[in-house]
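Changelog note: in this version the structure field was regenerated for every chain. One regenerated record is shown below for reference.
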Amino acid sequence: MMHKIFLLGVTAFALMGANEFSGRRAPSFSLPDVNMKQHDILDYRGKVLILEFIQTKCEKCQILARSIETKVKPKFGDSIGVLSVVVPPDTFDEVKKFINVFKVTSPILFDAGQMASSYTKATPQRPAMYFPHVFLIDQKGEIRNDWQWIAPGLYPDVLSGDQLIAEITKLQAEGRPSTPATKKK
């Protein structure tokens, strides 16, 4: 089942492919989690950040949560950041249940739609958001890649975690300072 939400309340058309939201600075935000602790994207500068927009009842979102918790995070530990964002109609109770069922250890943040709109470039002509939508943000705060689910069967390697691992490995290698050449005696 495809999950989408209309951010502006107008009929939408299918968005074309992934990556159309990449190649730009990640919009800034500070949002609360289920404990009302604020999370600011600037706190994650210097790390690769997975930013995912989810709905708690979305099956692909649930698969992605499992992959991130069991495959991606164990590989990279604290060297990456992971933030999930929900928009209405998800509630605090639904998010708490999602956290418990899927053993989510990363913050799940609450957005009323404005932050999601800035990431997905929502307009009256393009008001829909499809779930999950994953943004991969580099150490400098640039969106390097994104994937959204607009049709069944898209991006199984992202849902499994394999492509996220490959992309994060590449970004971390790019972000390492080069070692100075050693002088010969």
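Spot check on this record: The chain has one domain: 3-175. The domain at 3-175 is CATH 3.40.30.10 (Glutaredoxin).
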